[in-house]
Amino acid sequence: MYQYDHYDQTLVDERVAQFRGQVQRYLAGELTDDEFRPLRLMNGLYLQRHAPMLRVAIPYGLLSARQLRTLAHIARRYDQGYGHFTTRQNIQYNWPKLEETPDILAELAQVEMHAIQTSGNCIRNVTADHLSGVAPDEIEDPRIYCEIIRQWSTFHPEFSYLPRKFKIAVTGAAHDRAAAQVHDIGLNLLRNAQGEIGFRVLVGGGLGRTPIIGQVIREFLPQRDLLSYLEAILRVYNQYGRRDNIYKARIKILVKALGAVEFRAQVEAEWAYIKDSGLTLDQAEVERVRSYFTPPPYEADAAADSSLAQWQIGDPAFAAWVRHNVADHKTPGYRNVFVALKTPGVAPGDLTADQMDAVADFADRYSFGQIRATHHQNLLLPDVRQADLYPLWNALAAQKLAAPVIGTLADMICCPGLDFCSLANASSLAIAHQINEKFDRLDYLYDLGELRLNLSGCMNACGHHHVGHIGILGVDKKGEEWYQISLGGSSENDVTLGDILGPSVAKTEVANTLERVLQVYIEQRQDDERFLDTYRRIGLEPFRASAYVNEPEAIAPRKLRATQRPAVEAA
Amino acid sequence: MAHIIKNRQIIEDSWQTIADDAELPTGSVLISLARWNQERAALLERSDPLGVRLPNTANIADLVADLPHWPVVALEFPKFADGRAYSQARLLRERYGYQGEIRAVGDVLRDQLWFMARSGFDAFAVRADRSLEDALAGFGDFSESYQPGADQSLPLYRRGRFTKT
Ligand code: SF4
Asked: Which CATH architecture has domain A6-109?
C-alpha cells in the first residue's frame, strides 16, 4: 500500500497542529459555532445525538495491520471500545470527546492516517472496489489513481468550500463493486483499442432526497488528463452549483438542470484551457505511485494444496462459509476472505477493539498484513492462501466474525439511525435486529440467494436504500417511526433505483412484510433466478398485492417536510 | 484608517469603498461592478486609481477587456463558506494573467486565508471584529501543497519531491 514520504507526513502533522489550534480557539470562544463547524467537519468531526462523532478516513478502503491496531487502540482509549465501518470505507467513532480529538488525530498521524475531508462540503475520501489489485476480472488497478486523486484533492485551495459534499469512486474491473454510478463522479478504468489506459467518466449520480444515476460525459479520458478533467468538472460545479438550498446543492442537481450535454460542453470548454497545464499526469508519477501497489510475494505453488478440498468435504459449516464468504482471487491458490461484520445482535459494520486486534493478527498471519474495508460494511483479507482458509475460518469463528452470510439478506447495509445520528427518523439498527431475528435460519437465507437489503434511517440515504434489491427507509409520521419499503434497486453494473412498494409500514411490521414479499419471490422465481431478476421480470404488482394482506392499518406515506430537522450535518 | 493584510503584512488601507449612490471622492476608490458598467465612459476619464468589487457570480471571462483599468479587484465572500470567489481568483491570475491586487472582502477569516492565498489573493480585508495579527498565523498552517494553484503552477511531484529529503 501507499507509504508516506516526508511531505505526506509533514502535511498530516501540520493538519493536526492546525486542528488543535482551531479546537483551542473554539473552546476559548474565539471561533463561533458556525465558524468552527466547517473546520471540524473537514476533520471528520460531527456533533451528534450523544457525543461528537469522529469519522476517520481509510483511503480507498486500504488498511495495514498496524493501522488497524491503532484504530483498536483509539476505540479503547478514546471511545467505548468499538468502531463502526461505513459504506464509504471509513470508520466512525461514536463517543470521542471534543477536547481529545486533536490527540486522536495525532495518534492517527503516527500510522499515516487522518480524518481529512471525511466530511464537509469538499472532496471526500475517494472510494474504490474492495477487490482492487486482486479481482480476477480486473482491467487496471484503481488504487494507483485513487492515491493520485487523494493527493490532488487534499487541501485543494479552490474546492474546499464547494456548494456541497463531493464523492468520487473509482472502479477498475468489469464488475462495478464501488457503486460508481451513484457517486458525484464515477470513474471506470478501461483500455481503448490501442491498449492505452483511460477512464469512462460519469457525473451527477447520487442518492439522498433526489436519487439520480450518473451520466457518462466522456467514454474515454486518457490517463494523462485525469486531474485536469476532474479540475474542470469541479470548477464548473464550484461556480454554478446551487448554494441557495442545501437539498439542491449537489452536482447531480446542476447536471440535471443543465442537461448532461450542456454540462459536458461547459466542462470541456473549461478543460480546453487547463488540459496542458501542470495538472497533466506524467507516466513517471503513475509509475512511482504504482510501485507502492506491487503484489505481495505470492507462493508459486499455493494452488497445489489439496487440504482445502478435503476440509470442504469434511466440514459442511466450513464449506458453507467458503461458498459465501470467500471470493476468487486473480492469483492461483489465493482467495479473498470477507470478515463478516454482520453478527446478529450487533449493528452492521460494528467491530470491537479486541476484534480489530484479532483481525490485525489474522492479517499478519494470513494476508501479508493487509486488510480492506468494503462498501458493504465488511472487512476483507485480500491475499489468503487456500491452505490457510481452514485455520483462518476457525480463528474468525472464535471472534464471531465468520457468519457465513455475505451476499445474503443478512449481509445488510445499515446506517446508524436514531441510536447515533441526530438526523434520523428511525432506529435502523433495531430494524436490522428485527430482520435478523426473523430470518435467522441459514437454509432459508441460502434459499433466498443473493439479496441486497439496504436500510436508511432518513432521506439522506446513508444506508443506500434506493439501490438495495430491497430498500428500507425510516420515515417520521407525527413523531412515530414508519418504514417505507422499496424493491428492485441495484448499485452495480445493472444500476436501478428501487420502486416504492406501497404505504409505509409500522415498526413492528417490517420483518413480517418482508417475509410476505419474499414469499412472492419464492413462489414466482424461475430456476435459480435472483430476487432482483424475478422482480424485474414480474414487476411490482404481485409483491404489492401480497405484502399488505395482514396490515389493514397501513396508511399512505406522507412527504417528509424538508425543514423537519436541520440537515447541515447530513453525512 | 482601516487596516488590511497585504503580502502577508498588516498595512493601512488606502482604498475607500464607495457606495453606489455616493459621490466619488478623490484618491483610490473601490466601486461596484454595477456602477462601473453604468458609468464606464466617465470613469475611464478619472485620473485617480479605481478598483472594482465583483460579486461572486460575475463571469471573469466577460471582464477581461476591463482588467487593465483596475489596479485592484475585490472578490466577495458573502459568507466564508461560499467558495465561488476562489475560482474567480484563480481565473484572474492563472488564465487572464491579472497582475494587480486581488483582495478578499466580506466574511474573511483566518482559517481560510491559506486557501485564498493559494488561489491568487494577495490582500485580505479581514472581518472588522477579528484581529489581523491573529489572522496572519493562518498563512503558516501548511508548508507545502500537493496540487498546482495560483502560487505554484506545478504539482508537488514535479517540484523535486524525490530529490529532497
Ligand atoms: S441516513 Fe439519515 S439517519 Fe441514517 S446516518 Fe444518514 S443522516 Fe443519519
From this structure: Alpha-Beta Complex (3.90)
Q: Where are the alpha helices (DSSP H) in A60-141?
A: 65-78, 101-110
Total number of residues shown for chain B: 165
Domain A304-398 bears CATH identifier 3.90.480.20:
yes
Ligand 1 center to residue A416 CA distance, Å?
7
Cβ–Cβ under 8 Å, residues A96 and A22:
no
Closest residue in B to A40 (Cα–Cα): B111
CATH topology of domain A127-292: Sulfite Reductase Hemoprotein; domain 1 (3.30.413)
Q: Strand B72-77 to strand B50-54: parallel, antiparallel, or no bridges (unpaired)?
A: parallel
pTM exceeds 0.90: yes
- Tens of pLDDT, residue by residue over A467-526, are 999 999 999 998 899 999 999 999 999 999 999 999 999 999 999 999 999 999 999 999
Which residues are CB-contacts of A58 (< 8 A; sequence separation ≥ 6)?
A89, A90, A91, A113, A125, A373
Other C-beta atoms closer than 10 Å to the C-beta of B38 total: 13
Helix (H) or strand (E) holding B84: helix B84-90
| CA atoms lying within 13 Å on the CB side of residue A97 | 6
At residue A446, φ and ψ (nearest 5 deg) are -65, -35
Cα–Cα–Cα angle for B62, B67, B73, rounded to 5 degrees:
100
CB A206 within 8 A of CB A464: no
A406 Cβ inside 6 Å of ligand 1: no
* Chain length of chain A: 571
Residue of A nearest to B117 (CA): A157
Q: Which residues contact B66 (CB under 8 A, 6 or more apart)?
A: B36, B52
Q: Chain B contacts of A270, Cβ < 8 Å?
A: none
What the block records as the C-alpha cell of A354 is 479486541
A562 pLDDT more than 80: no
Decide if A396 contacts A362 (C-beta within 8 A).
Answer: yes
Quick check: is B23 in a domain?
yes
Residue ranges covered by each domain of chain A: 6-109, 127-292, 304-398, 413-563
